[in-house]
Amino acid sequence: MNLSPDYLIRLLELAGFVFKRAKGSHKVYYNPINNKTIVVPYHNGKDLKKGTFMAIVKQAGIEL
Length: 64
Prior knowledge:
The protein is an alpha+beta fold.
């Protein structure tokens, strides 16, 4: 399974999330349809831990 933050961002964008802002090593995405905000840790492109990746996917309401 690909656990990179770039892949997660691609999934979020396909689900209707748009980039809102970045602060430090975190990127914030917002979905205007369901009014959800998701924070994606982006630490030099390193892979996320599986639990973190899956928690963000679940919070966004994305089915894998």
